């Protein structure tokens, strides 16, 4: 963590998994709690779990600055976004591959961030649309993105000072 701070990193993106929604080995809430006590870095947490109530409540208690949950696992997007924002935390929705951006139309104005998970990145329909709508964009595993597409997204985002996370597969 100290090396990240010294390098000028301002925000730590943490994926929270439960081993069910996402089969990867989970990073525990206790680890996040310990990290929170050791640094003033901003915490951006991406919750990939089936039972979101518990994890959202715990992360709000820990003191994260941004919390992004999966829309596919949330029957009441509007309620969850309001809950997070009421706590003074930036709120966002993550979308799995194949989930259309249109599923967020009625709550997009309440989203501070949209996380687009995809192995087949459709930049023009999803990421640029979100950036142009004034949302922070996280792109996980942009395996098929071209350098020209990355440049277009970064040029567009630079006009607005947005956070973009290019996950594994980005170069």
Class computed from helices, strands and strand pairing = alpha/beta
What's the total number of strands? 7
Major beta-sheet overview: 7 strands, parallel
| Gyration radius over CA | 15 Å
Mean pLDDT: 78
Oligomer: single chain
Low-confidence stretches: 166-171
The SSE order reads: HEHEHEHEEHEHE
Which term fits the overall shape?
A: globular
Instruction: Give the helix level as a range of percent.
Output: 25-40%
User: What is the distance, rounded to the nearest whole angstrom, between the alpha carbons of the first and last residues?
Assistant: 23 Å
Helical segment count: 6
Amount of beta strand: 15-25%
Largest sheet strand order: 1-2-3-4-5-6-7
Give the tags.
alpha/beta; disordered C terminus; 6 helices; about 170 residues; about 20% strand; seven-stranded parallel β-sheet; 7 strands; globular
Describe the structure.
There is one protein chain. This protein has 171 residues and is an alpha/beta fold. Helices cover 32% and strands 22% of the residues. The protein contains 6 helices and 7 strands. The protein has a 7-stranded parallel sheet. β6, α6 and β7 (164-166) form a beta-alpha-beta unit. The model is unreliable at 166-171 (pLDDT under 50).
Helix and strand layout, with pairings?
Blueprint: H1 2-6, E1 11-17, H2 29-38, E2 42-48, H3 52-62, E3 66-70, H4 77-86, E4 90-95, E5 113-117, H5 127-132, E6 136-140, H6 147-158, E7 164-166
Parallel strand pairs: 1-2, 2-3, 3-4, 4-5, 5-6, 6-7
